[in-house]
Specification:
Length: 379
């Protein structure tokens, strides 16, 4: 395909190497590491227009544009990044990265481990949102960016944006957290645990050493993805999209897919195993579970938000039951009580959690209006 109007066009990833050890919340450290990034738009003369994009669970550095002329799909947030889009690359210099622990080029379980002769595999440390933010701040320094004009993300990416505002208050002017939560609910941790158990109990998991055995826990990883997809869509969106009609018109009384939704979930699961790594999936879900920026402040989110100097935009979606609007409102109320500048909108949209990835008109309108203000602040 050729680049569509409003696209950043052909883009190339870059690898940024860090030789100094990175301390991790788990008590371990990475002796050295690589971050794979992409950049779109020009950095201005004052270096004041940089925007950091933080990805969600299965995202990576490829947020916009295409890698080659035959690319079938653009980056995962192409609807929001590009000329004239909410994150307007005519006005912003955008940096997107793959987090450590990922499987798309940054140092993670698939990377060569400290012995130099085998991948890290299951020995790759557990990483947290705060670890990611720490590594992203080193990236900021390496790119000679004095501070981010905005840190932006959806879902798990929104949590990173919040952590940025709390941990580095002087280094970020605006925090945009979309479809996020101040911490996971018990139910969400339960979903993640079921997904992890699907992987951990796969006979091909081999304690995480599946590469050594020439195997992959494909069944477990596919089941984990299928479970995740169920939570990304609202009940009504699933009903509207798939209905209950039998594909053959009559019950076949067998376990092969008969309903459209069964076929969809199996397709999503099978597609995912070619794109993602099981050890990474385990770590991404644990990072979600551990996220709790109030923990260091006696469990008081207001005290955590009092550190934030950035202006804050929170966006939620009415049918998102994974991170419901009430979770964004918890953040908003804490920010207001902390005396922070905060804007909040809940977009009435039917899809559910995945709405943050699609071009819902009201969402794009509100997002664009806020980012125009961000651009004016750095002009």
């Amino acid at each position: 395909m050729t680049a569509a109007p409003g696209s950043v066009g052909l883009v190339q990833p870059e690898d940024i190497h860090f030789a100094e050890p990175l301390p991790l919340d788990c008590g371990s450290e990475l002796p050295h590491y690589t971050l794979r990034i992409e950049r779109y738009g020009q950095l201005n003369a004052k270096r004041s227009n940089a925007v950091l994009i933080c990805h969600a669970l299965s995202g990576n550095h490829h947020a916009a544009g295409i890698h080659h002329a035959d690319d079938r799909k653009p980056g995962w947030w192409d609807a929001c990044i590009g000329p004239g889009k909410p994150i307007d690359t005519n006005r912003f210099h955008v940096v997107a990265l793959n987090n450590i622990g990922g499987c798309s080029g940054s140092t993670g379980p698939l990377s060569t481990g400290p012995t130099g002769d085998a991948p890290w595999g299951p020995d790759f440390p557990i990483v947290t949102v705060r670890d990611w933010v720490r590594s992203q701040d080193r990236l900021r320094e390496r790119l000679s960016i004095p501070r981010w004009q905005a840190v932006v993300g959806g879902s798990l990416g929104g949590m990173q944006a919040l952590q940025w505002g709390i941990d580095y208050p002087e280094l970020v002017a605006h925090v945009v957290a979309i479809a996020a939560a101040p911490r996971l609910s018990t139910q969400n941790i339960a979903f993640n645990e079921v997904a992890r158990q699907a992987i951990l109990t796969d006979p091909e998991f081999h304690g995480g050493h599946y590469l050594k055995y020439g195997a992959r826990p494909a069944r477990g990883l596919a089941l984990a993805r299928m479970l995740g997809h169920i939570t990304y869509l609202s009940d009504s969106a699933m009903a509207d999209k798939f209905g209950r009609e039998l594909m053959s018109g009559q019950p076949q009384y067998r376990f092969e897919p008969e309903f459209q939704v069964e076929s969809y979930l199996r397709y999503q699961g099978s597609r995912f195993i070619d794109q993602f790594d099981a050890n990474t999936y385990l770590r991404m879900t644990k990072a979600l579970d551990y996220f709790d920026p109030a923990r260091d402040y006696g469990g008081d989110l207001v005290a955590a938000m009092e550190r934030m100097q950035a202006q804050l935009l929170l966006l939620a979606f009415s049918r998102d039951w994974r991170f419901s609007p009430q979770r964004s409102e918890e953040i908003m109320q804490a920010a207001v009580r902390a005396g922070r500048s905060v804007s909040y909108a809940c977009i009435d949209s039917p899809l559910g959690h995945d709405d943050f990835l699609v071009p819902v008109p009201e969402y794009l309108q509100i997002f664009s209006a806020y980012m125009r203000r961000v651009a004016e602040d750095c002009a």
